[in-house]
Design goal:
six-stranded antiparallel sheet, 42% helix, alpha+beta, four-stranded antiparallel sheet, 715 residues
Length: 715
Amino acid sequence: MAVLNKIRQRSLILILVIALALFSFVIGDLFKNSDALTGGAQDVVATINGKDINRTEFQQKVKNYQDRSGGRQTSTQSMNAIYNQELRKIVLQSEFDALELSVEKDEMRDLLKTSFSSYPEFQDENGTFDVNRLNAFIANLRDLKGDTAPLGNFLVNYDSWTNNEQTIAANAVQQTYYNMIKAGVGTTIAEAEDDYLGDAKTVDIRYVQVPYTSIADSLIEVSKSDIKAYIKDHAEKFKADATREVVYVEFKEVASKADEDKIKTDLLALKSDRTEYNESSKNADIISGFDTATDIAEFVNSNSDIKYDNTFWRAAQLPAVAKDTLIKLSVGDYYGPYKEGEYFNLSKIIAIKQMPDSVKVRHILIPFAGGQRADASITKTQEEAKETADSILTQIKGGKRFMDLLELSSDKVSNEKDGEIEFAYNAGMAPEFKTFAFDNKRGDIDVVGTSFGYHVIEILEQKSFSKTVQIATIADKIEPSDQTLSDVFNKMSKFEISAKDSDFNELAKERKLTVKPMTFKELDENIPGLGSQREVVRWAFNEDTDVGEFKNFPVSNFGFIVAKVVEKKEEGLMSVEDASITALPEIRKEKKAKMIRGKITATTINDIAKNQGQSTRTAAAVTLKNTTLSGAGVEPKVVGAAFGLAEGATSKLIDGEKGVYVIEVTKISEATKLENYTAIMNRLSTERRNAVQNKVYQALEKAADIEDNRAKTVY
């Protein structure tokens, strides 16, 4: 009791100590990330040309986008899509503002007239657009204070109307901007002539090639300094994004052999009746098993992870792992438990019958509006189509000839064959149509509904009967037990604890775990085989995560991984090691070219070929637009040099793609000049204007001042 009194006396002090500790923790964390105090970068997804993208608004747009996509886009894909939309809008708006482009009131009225002139709500009694009716509609929306009014097939309120106006205006400004640029894009006569000559003027050449392959790679020494120099001289080619290299091991939550054995045992136990105590009656009830159950569908649906299907199956349709056995069983026989995919199955033969493999039917199709392949002329509703089909069936049963009613059918293809269709069971037919044709008897006739409409079907013939079986299958999904899940978690935890004092790779090897590598950029999300694992990427790029650190991550429907950061590369130029794959062949080529040049002293093609052990070759009708050199491949420098020489002239040494060349122009075929280049000018101008829109935006985006915080704020 004395101890309790002392605790009570000191409770206020304890509360104050705890409060101060919590306060210092929060304040410390705030100072660690000053943005939390200022409401800074954490609330800004990106800043583009000085304009912020607010995180809350951005996330709402992402949510709306995902809702519209029906879940077909991941959160990261949706974020990227919205970011690109916002980026484009801001970059273009910055340019529009600089040029003072806008839509004035009169122009806006014209735009609205263009957009809505076909709406009856805005037309007078003569069907002419009436601006006064438009103004009255907008004023009415404003007075409704958020309530909606009908417009065509839509309901709109004042906010949705103004949003639509803003979209129309933005599109108009954008079109004006691009039209202004396109107006300044064209082609000169000289450019048109050059384009024409690129195809029409040809040269014939003789050449000798000393291939780079004539010098072995082993004779070329390439140092780190050579690669560094090459990277510096070709910096644009070797730009690299920030990356993180991570290795990880997997701990999969999969059923153990003991789990699988129990599932099989439980399935077999379902065959027999069992006694179950009834709390209400205070008696022991006998619960029927698979052996004695009278309502098979109810029994299967109560005990199986897959619902009962009363279909009669042909051998080819049965599960591959069991078809040879199942098709040979008798009624009442069992097979299993057997494994199929992620289930263990216990199957029982319920019935056997001979069924046709092919049928011939004739039908009359009555389609309805909105049905599959229904054209615009179809106006019947589903109910009306069904009523028509029922009427036709009544007439046929009353003695009217099927053939006399074929003109009512919309299936023109089968109508040409008296409405007859012959098909095998594996043909791609509407399932309801197929079921009626195969499950009933010759001579049966009825109305059958499909996605195409309502069919009056008569079975004319059934052929090639074969054995089919009706099977009741209890399927139990193979899942790990609670004990297995606990074992996996413990195994993962022990690995993580041991990794603190051990080599990650050696520890994995010792425990028979495979170490898998992965490299990703800051905005990546997918890990091969594991799907979207954004948390792993965020952790690896966190400023506080150092090389050598590791952490476990739960993976949905999989288990866990323990990941370790092994390398951090920041944005900039590639390392020598990474760049060497691309740089080495090019550096070797340069060094080989220099060595080959040093060995060539002759000046004529014949002498060079003789001294270098090569043969002379020819290429006829070479054009500037086709840089493929006959016998050598694509050689733009060589082809370009040919058009800079006079007929009979010999070039200097040319470092090409495949070797060092010397060429001699043997013939120049000048093109006949055209009297008029207007057609070529128009074609080139159209091509350039069509391409300018994307190129202009790419240039604006490249020049924009962009601070992208996505990885720190919403990813």
